[in-house]
Amino acid sequence: MSLIEVSVVVVVVLVAVLVGTAVPALLQLRSTLKSLDTLLNETRPRLNAVLDQAAEATSRVNKAAVALEEGMGRVRGVLGALESLGTVIETARDAVRKTVTVATSIGPALYAGYRTFFASKDAEPSSAAEGVGAEASEASGPGL
Fold this sequence. Notes:
The chain is mainly alpha-helical. The protein has one helix and no strands.
């Protein structure tokens, strides 16, 4: 045998060994791919159902988020109104405090003036009545 013939035999043997080892691997790959195809065909409806449920849950979460944002807008409005009300109450409290301070400082003086005014009015009618009585007796004369 010549060198070329030996080379051809070696190449043929190597190809046969390669094919012999590749065929079982290819058969196993084919079996695995068939199983995977069957699994995907079986799980596709379930996967679609799960994806539909996920889309529905996402829609609900989005609706809840929108409702929450609207609620937060209302809460902001209420808090703004409460802040305005607090400002009004604080202004009224300051006005009352100033009024009470002024009344406390001038109250005793007003009371003293009130008492003096009415005490002098009570004293005047009795002295005026005495004066009127004296004038009446003088007018009627000494003998009556």
